[in-house]
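Let us work through a complete example step by step.
Step 1: write down the sequence.
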Amino acid sequence: MLADAVRTGLQQNAWSVDWVGDAAAARLALLDHAYKAVVLDLGLPRGSGLGVLDAIRSRYDATPVLIITARDRLSDRIGGLDAGADDYLVKPFQLDELSARLRAVVRRSQGRVLPVLQRGAVVLDPGRRVVTLKGERVSLSIHEYRTLLALMERNGRVLSREQLEREVYGGDGTIESNTIAVYIHQLRRKLGDELIATVHGYGYRIGGALE
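Step 2: predict the structure and record it as tokens.
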């Protein structure tokens, strides 16, 4: 029940979420996919959360890991952080705090200091899920927002259509082949044609330099 509530809450905060229910499935998922971050419960069936964390770090995978657990002793927190976790949240917790901590560990992993992203006159505030153009708020659908966020977080690096689908939809494999192209078209219409560049044969990137 908690996992389902966390997944639903994160999705409502514009995260694309894959949820697996035990340590063995988590190990497989983390081998198959490159995630932006991991929310890891320590008390897992078929293994332990710390075992999953050790598997991640032993192959030099630097994906940010946020541990959630009912173990609130100082020694448990220190043990988790020393094992390679990036942050630690004790149950019960508020979903808004979980989202804020996730944004923080992702931001640190990307080497960013400021909590907002900006390209020219376009500003994206992940904390408030607000996008503005020349100071005026722009209304985006949830999938348009996720597409824009994925591109802006990559700091001008190219993302393929498949990578964007993964960022926007997670593990859902039922997406139409032109869906991402439609979102790119809508973003250009709302925010300007020059914002997103098409790299033919590869994918898309944010045009222009970070300001």
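Step 3: interpret the result. The chain has two domains: 2-109, 117-206.
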